[in-house]
Specification:
27% helix, 6-stranded mixed beta sheet, 10 helices, alpha/beta, globular, 7-stranded mixed beta sheet, 401 residues
Length: 401
């Protein structure tokens, strides 16, 4: 198939030679359309060419600063065979990671955008249901082909494909973005396993695709520090860290979230795993006000806030928010305590995040050691050519004195 051509300015193809999947609008010299085409539309497939008009990639066109998100670094048709090859490659990696047909863990990420060579596409698996989120018009346009590829790759191991893209795009034709099942149907909510713990997942009304799968390994790591300890889990959402702490015999776990629905989810997951327990208490409250008002002394604190910065313009304010939050927690935690602190803001890179935590430690006047540098798990891979894909940063800190 012949696609419209994006011709780059001289020397602006260097990043593509390095296999970075983004073409910025400022790198474009001209656009060559077919004679019958009037204009290039958002999400259209295009060829990206050097100054000699030689094709060096194919991708989805966009009208924002990222003008093209590359799907391939060669000239090829983006058709049903292409999507099947990409999905099969993603399945192969998750099999290598031991996540497919795993009796202890039945929730995992199958496609992680640029990390799997599919910019703008997220697919999470919950038991036998695939939940798709398209973050670009191009991916939304291809969603039926992607759904068909999923069924071909999984066979009987997949019973349903759900589209949850309605609110993930800034601009689109709403007719093809309405949430709903693309293939089959499955019960929702549904209980999934994560490291042999149970979580009730609602991909229809829950945040993101229904669960924050990216903290799976960090939740497991928390268990090393909580036995017979008092634990505070802030911004708890559905209580992942709380459930793991209770399973590792924490003496007390407090869960805090400003959302009443989140606390309801958290309480349900605690009850699902442990029944009625006096070792857990939840609070519908803003984290900052809770930290300033509580008289409890905690041995372990988890700070896992939502993205404070979703754009570069919000970066400075976000840094101040992270500093204030960590400063407050560092001041109140018991000597010998452990603090797990995170940022999921993509525009806050690892160095800036760690510099901000250092500034908080200086302000709090505590003696602190870094025990672990944390990130997202392997089913959220980062392409070595696209370091921006490492969005989750975290530290495990030992508050010595």
């Amino acid at each position: 198939m012949e696609y419209p051509s994006i011709i780059l300015k001289p020397k602006r193809n260097i990043s593509i030679k390095r296999r970075h999947p983004w073409v910025f609008s400022g790198a474009i010299d001209k656009i060559l359309l077919d004679p019958d085409a009037q204009e290039l539309g958002e999400g259209d497939l295009v060829k990206v060419c050097n100054q000699k008009e030689e094709c060096i990639g194919v991708g989805h066109f966009g009208e924002a600063s990222i003008a093209v998100r590359l799907l391939s670094f060669k000239e090829e048709d983006i058709n049903s065979n292409f999507w099947l090859k990409k999905i099969e490659a993603a399945v192969k990696l998750r099999k290598k990671l031991g996540l497919i047909n795993n009796s202890e863990t039945s929730a995992y990420r199958l496609v992680h955008a640029e990390g799997d060579g599919l910019p703008g596409l997220i697919i999470d698996i919950y038991n036998k249901t695939a939940v798709i989120q398209a973050h670009s018009i191009g991916m939304a346009n291809a969603i039926n082909e992607i759904s068909n590829a999923l069924l071909s790759a999984y066979g009987n191991d997949l019973e349903a494909v759900y589209n949850k893209s309605e609110k993930t795009l800034h601009k689109a034709d709403q007719t093809h973005l309405q949430n709903g099942y693309l293939q089959g149907k499955s019960n929702c909510p549904q209980i999934v396993k994560e490291n042999n713990l149970s979580f009730d997942i609602d991909w229809i009304t829950g945040q993101k695709t229904g669960f924050f799968i990216d903290q799976r390994e960090n939740r497991k790591l928390l268990q090393q520090f909580v036995q017979h300890k008092k634990v505070l889990n802030t911004f708890c959402y559905s209580g992942g860290f709380s459930v793991y702490a209770l399973a590792a015999d924490a003496s007390l776990v407090h869960s805090v979230d400003s959302s009443e629905k989140a606390i309801e989810l958290c309480n349900n997951n605690v009850k699902l795993n442990f029944g009625e327990t006096t070792k857990h208490e939840s609070f519908v409250q803003d984290t900052f006000s809770f930290l300033s008002e509580t008289n409890e002394e905690y041995d372990v604190i988890v700070l896992d806030p939502p993205a404070y910065a979703k754009s570069k313009s919000a970066k400075h304010k976000a840094v101040q928010g992270y500093k204030r939050l960590n400063d407050t927690a560092m001041r109140m935690i018991k000597p010998g305590g452990v603090l797990l602190t995170f940022s999921c803001s993509q525009v806050i890179d690892r160095k800036l995040f760690e510099d901000t935590i250092t500034a908080a430690a200086i302000s709090a006047r505590r003696t602190i050691k870094i025990l672990h540098h944390l990130s997202q798990p392997a089913d959220h891979p980062v392409s070595i050519f696209h370091p921006e894909g490492e969005y989750l940063k975290g530290l495990v800190l030992y508050i010595e004195s």
